[in-house]
Amino acid sequence: MSVAGAETPDAETPEAETPDAFGAYPRLSPPQLQVLREHGSTEAVAAGQVLARAGEPLDSFFAVVEGRLAVDDGEGHQLHGPGRFVGDIGLLEGQPSFATITVVESSTVLAVPLPALERIITSDPLLGDLILRAYLIRRSMAIGLGEGLRIVGSRFSPDTRRLLDLAARNRVPHRLLDLEGDPSAEAIVRRMRLATSDLPVVIVGGSRILRNPSIEELSSALGLARTRPRATCDLLVVGAGPAGLAAAVYAASDGLSVVLSDAVATGGQAARSARIENYLGFPAGISGAELAERAGLQAAKFGATLFAPAAAQELGSVDGALTVRFSDGTTVSPRAVVVASGMEYRRLPAKNLERFEYTSVFYAATINEARECGIDPVVVVGGGNSAGQAAVFLAGTASRVHLVVRGAELGADMSRYLVVQVEDHPRISVHLQSEVVEAGGGDRLESVTVAHRTSGEREELDTAHLFVFIGARPATAWLGSDIDRDERGYLTTGPRSSAVESRSQPFETSLPGVFAVGDVRSGSVKRMSAAVGEGASVVKMVHDYLATGGCRF
């Protein structure tokens, strides 16, 4: 009973649990917790106990039964109570934790070993989808907030650009601490007494320091370096874009032993799209990177081995026996090969642009590039869907987007829904029948000159960021000259391409047992949905080839 006018000591009010934003922190039901209990163990944990440290891999999935856990990424924390679980998609991909997970008060948790969690995700659709969806949302939020890695270096350094590209292509949360203007970057350099040769520096988990790491070193630190594949397999898929991912998923689900390789990461060109709005089944749209991540997990679920980053360098065939040699020296001898290596971006032939190629020219427009550009004006070159998507996305943050198009109208190569979005956006200026002819600047890009193709009139646009989407050429140099191509370099397939016409399949190249799908194939429809269809369809052809005497190890 309280007395009026008397002071009552304030009890310390516990900090509130983090709200569930966008479905990132769902609460498991008692039956779902029971499923986890059957695959793991219930553990009593003490206040202050650390379940995972930032920069180190997790070996278990943790769900709260009683009490609370704190997840601290170094710049803030979340609190999670009974029914919630911690971690993100990196747990399923062998990546280190980017946060420290600590017990707030005496609690009880469910600890599920990773192999058991993977079985749950594949065998229990409802529970598995809930966990997977939450993990994907958390990863997207972390990327948007710039959590995770800290890369200390100059945004105008080619070495910094390579590390940023690796992190972005693999959907690893990161933030650039730019030596060109971020005081915290300068403070880190002074505090750590870093020499110029040490830069760029990567900080993993707040404590692990990598000085001027190679792509291979950073990949290993992030858990991206996969176990080397077996020397033999039923099917080797080269290229992990939409076509290659589809081939790997369907072939592995059919019971074939599959190795899926890529020079950088899963996703191909699709992974560079901030939002794909016309892909069947996703009415609200989906980012290309998230779609690729889901497909990669699906391929792994069926037993496919992902081998990336690993660039295919040479295809050999001796008496029908196929071999593929990779850049790290690995050699794989598959019974059949699916070439899904896609396209290589075409570069603008603008005067002086090569000086800025690795510092100011971009071939993707995702949240990472948008964060780097900030509110600066940007120039986007291209008239297709990729250019339109980039312009609309970048206009969400940039003060001005200049879209430079060679054609006379936007609708010639761009979907109608994108044309409407571009034309209606107040911060997008469209320059039709125009092309970038020159780049200007000192140590960094400062402007580009745009010339009208008919009148010759020139206009100088201030920008430090140039986005290029002008098409690509087939990435087939690693195949050598023995496989037939059309006049533009695309691989020809079908009966006329096969050395043994009676055995040829529609997607088989002139070299028996080697198939081509997606953008790299002559006559293919350059759409993501078409690439997925070809990747799925080629698996039947691979089965037919193997059943009629395909090379055996």
Question: Short description, anyone?
Answer:
This protein is α/β, with parallel strands linked by helices. Helices cover 26% and strands 24% of the residues.
Gyration radius, to the nearest Å?
Answer: 26 Å
Mean pLDDT: 90
Please identify the structural class as seen in this structure: alpha/beta
Characterize the largest beta sheet: strand count, sense, and whether it forms a barrel: 7 strands, mixed
Distance between the termini: 85 Å
Separate helix tally: 13
Number of strands: 28
Q: Point out poorly predicted stretches.
A: 1-11
Percentage beta strand: 15-25%
Spatial shape: globular
The percent of residues in helical segments reads 25-40%
List keywords for this structure.
7-stranded mixed sheet; 553 residues; alpha/beta
How would the blueprint of this fold be written?
Blueprint: H1 30-39, E1 41-45, E2 50-52, E3 60-66, E4 69-72, E5 77-80, H2 90-93, E6 100-103, E7 107-113, H3 114-123, H4 125-145, E8 149-153, H5 158-169, E9 174-178, H6 183-192, E10 201-204, E11 208-211, H7 215-221, E12 232-238, H8 242-253, E13 258-261, H9 288-301, E14 305-307, E15 312-318, E16 321-326, E17 331-339, E18 343-345, E19 361-362, H10 367-373, E20 378-381, H11 385-394, E21 401-404, H12 416-424, E22 428-431, E23 434-441, E24 445-452, E25 458-462, E26 466-468, E27 472-474, E28 514-516, H13 528-547
Parallel strand pairs: 8-9, 12-13, 12-17, 13-14, 17-28, 19-26, 20-21, 20-26, 21-22
Antiparallel strand pairs: 1-7, 2-6, 3-7, 4-5, 4-6, 8-10, 10-11, 15-16, 16-17, 18-27, 23-24, 24-25
